[in-house]
Amino acid sequence: MAKPVSIEVWNPNGKYRVVSTKSMPGTRWINLLIEQDCRLEICTEKKTILSVEDIIALIGDKCDGVIGQLTEDWGETLFAALSKAGGKAFSNMAVGYNNVDVNAANKYGVAVGNTPGVLTETTAELAASLSLAAARRIVEADGFMRAGLYDGWLPHLFVGNLLKGQTVGVIGAGRIGSAYARMMVEGFKMNLIYFDLYQSTRLEKFVTAYGQFLKANGEQPVTWKRASSMSEVLQEADVISLHPVLDKTTYHLINKESLATMKKEAILINCSRGPVVDEVALVEHLKQNPMFRVGLDVFEDEPYMKPGLGEMKNAIVVPHIASASKLEVTKYTFTRHQSNLELIKTLVSQISSLLQGKIKGYPVWHDPNRVDPFLNENAPPPAASPSIVNAKALGLPVSKL
Ligand SMILES: NC(=O)C1=CN([C@@H]2O[C@H](COP(=O)(O)OP(=O)(O)OC[C@H]3O[C@@H](n4cnc5c(N)ncnc54)[C@H](O)[C@@H]3O)[C@@H](O)[C@H]2O)C=CC1
Ligand SMILES: O=C(O)C(=O)CO
C-alpha cells in the first residue's frame, strides 16, 4: 500500500476529481476549476520532486484529470493508474514534455496537454542574459570584486567577447530559438546561422529586413544563413544557443566530438533540456579550454550537476529559472512566476474543457502558437482545449474557431 500523501481540498462536492501534484501561484486557476464543477485536490507534500509512488497515491481510486510537473516521470505506470481511476486528461505544466511517454498515454486513451507559447519571451530573455553574462564574464568579475581582489583598473582585466559583428548560432529555431535569435541580431547586431529541421521563414525575413534597415542607415548589415547541418553552426558561430525539443534525435547533441569542432573561445548556452548536452564531456571541455564559456539553465541529472561543473569559473549555472519572470499586464503586476500564472490558465482550460466534453466530441484548439485567447483575465477561455499533443492519435476533433 502506497504511503498517503498530504493534500488540500477545494470544492469537496465537485463532480470531477482533479489532482494537482503541486501548489501553483494565485487562486484564479482554482476558481476556474471550481466553476467547472471540479473537486480539486492539491498536493501539499514538502518535497520538491514527487515519486511515481507518491503520484499513484494521489491519483487514488477515482481521478478524472491530473495537472503534473516536468520533474515527474509520466510513463506507463502512471498512465495505467490514471486510466484505472477513470482519468482521461493529463496536463504537464511545461512547454517541454520529454518527461511524458505519449505512447503510454495513447495506449490508455489519456489526452496529454502542454503549454506551448507562454514561455517564449521569458526563456529567450534568459538565454540572452546568459549569453551576455558569459560574453562579458559578469559572474567571474562579480566574484572577484566581492572577494576584495580589485586593486585598480588594468587594461587586461576580465577581457571578454564583443558580440557586435560576431555570429550567433541557434540550434532549434522554433518559438524560443527564433525569439532569442531576434534579440541577439537586433540588440547586438550579430549575424545569424541556424539549424532546424524546418525552415524558419519568418526569422529569415526579419533578419533580411533588419539588415536592409541598417544598410539604409549607413551601418554594416546583419546576415542570416540556414545551415545544412548542426556541425556547420558549431564550427561557424561565436555564441551558440540550444533550443530544440529533447527527444532521441537531440539527446547528447553536444558531446565530446561536437565540442571539439567549436571555436576555442565560443560561448554555449542551454535553456532547453539538460540531456541535450553530455555534461561529463562538457566539464572536460571547460577544463581544457578556459576561454570557452557556458551558460546553463538546465542540467543532465537535474537538480544535480555533474562532478566538477560547479567549480568551473567559465561556467554560469542557474537553477532552471527561464520561466521565472515578472510581467506587467495592463494594470496588474503579478508575482515572480507571472509567466507560470499564464501557463496555469492554459492548463486549467485544458483540464476543464476536456472533462466537460468527456474527451470525445470536444474540439482541440487549432493553433498551439496562439495562446492569447486563453490568457485574458476577464474573458472566459474559448470553448476549445489548447495544445493536446496526442489529439491526432486519440482522434480528437480540431476546433474551427
Ligand atoms: N528552461 C526553461 O525553463 C524552458 C525550457 N523549454 C524547452 O525549450 C524547448 C523548445 O521550446 P519551443 O521553442 O517553444 O518549442 P518549438 O517546438 O517551437 O521549437 C523546437 C524546435 O526544435 C526543432 N528540432 C527538433 N528536433 C531537432 C533536431 N534534431 N535538430 C534541430 N532542431 C530540432 C523543431 O523543429 C522546432 O523548430 C521545449 O521543448 C522545452 O524543453 C521551454 C520553456 C522553458
Ligand atoms: O516549460 C518548460 O518546458 C520549462 O522548462 C518550464 O520551466
UniProtKB/TrEMBL annotation:
GO biological process terms on file: oxidative photosynthetic carbon pathway
Pathway: Photosynthesis; photorespiration; 3-phospho-D-glycerate from glycine: step 3/4
The enzyme's E.C. designation: 1.1.1.29
Annotated GO CC locations: cytosol; peroxisome
UniProt cross-references to InterPro entries, sorted A to Z: D-isomer_2-hydroxyacid_DH (IPR050223), D-isomer_DH_CS1 (IPR029752), D-isomer_DH_NAD-bd (IPR006140), NAD(P)-bd_dom_sf (IPR036291)
GO MF annotation terms: glyoxylate reductase (NADPH) activity; hydroxypyruvate reductase (NADH) activity; NAD binding
Catalytic activity field: (R)-glycerate + NAD(+) = 3-hydroxypyruvate + NADH + H(+)
Keywords: Glycolate pathway, NAD, Oxidoreductase, Peroxisome, Photorespiration
Pfam families: 2-Hacid_dh_C
Domain called D-isomer specific 2-hydroxyacid dehydrogenase NAD-binding: residue spans: 130-322
Subcellular location: Peroxisome
Record family assignment: Belongs to the D-isomer specific 2-hydroxyacid dehydrogenase family.
Name of this chain's protein: glycerate dehydrogenase
Organism listed in the record: Linum tenue
